[in-house]
Amino acid sequence: MLAVANERGNRPDDPHKRDPLDFVLWQAQAPGEPAWPSPWGPGRPGWHIECSVMSTRLLGPMLDLHAGGSDLVFPHHECEIAQSEPLTGRAPFVRCWLHTAMVEHDGSKMSKSVGNLVMVGDLLQRWSPDALRVYLGQHHYRRSWSHDLDALAEAACVAAKLRRAVEVAGGAGETLDASGAHAGFTMALNDDLDTPAALSQLESLADAILLAAQRSRDVGSAQAVLRRLAQVFGLVLDAPGVEARVTAGWSIHLARFPPSRGMR
User: Domains in the chain and their CATH numbers?
Assistant: First the structure.
């Protein structure tokens, strides 16, 4: 598969190419660019070969899962396949691709190059971590969506409802059966990670718990199921703010990099 010219160094006017659409395995050094010595002269690996080399070296000739943005389907992932399978003699290079759709903000794709990023650190000044996790989970990873503060506010309401459901006191009456919600939740995630449907199951279970508690039914086992399933999304429920262990770990990670708004 041939790749179109792109901003990552695939220059269509490169005199060393047999065809202007060929993608680059070794990028010859241009003035001011970083370079390493090689049998082909100073330069650096091409964009696509970097990923093929790293993945096959560390994970083997065939990958179970390969993720990336939907904007990488072509040329990047097509080129990975084109060079990896002939080299290893094994196919398919990847058994399952997980391509994440783009998120838009102010009418264009959210990206660092455009400068329209919405930082998690800024959102956490107003919204709880659980609200953000519900907000993200309400969008299927394969479908594009636009950042919307009204939708985020609705997600915060859902997160608050889940928290009330795990904290509410029940009674000694008939036990609430949560097996249906458990089965529906599992079925949703088995269907190409349908997180919106899975979250809908959590919200329905929370509604059932709150109603059953009002009627003095035993909701303890259902609350345990809700907590366990919510953990799949990383929902804490009991903690309104960012957990201390998360803050500490992120601070250690950030210390490895120079200050940059893009790393917040």
Answer: 26-100 (no CATH), 104-233 (1.10.730.10)
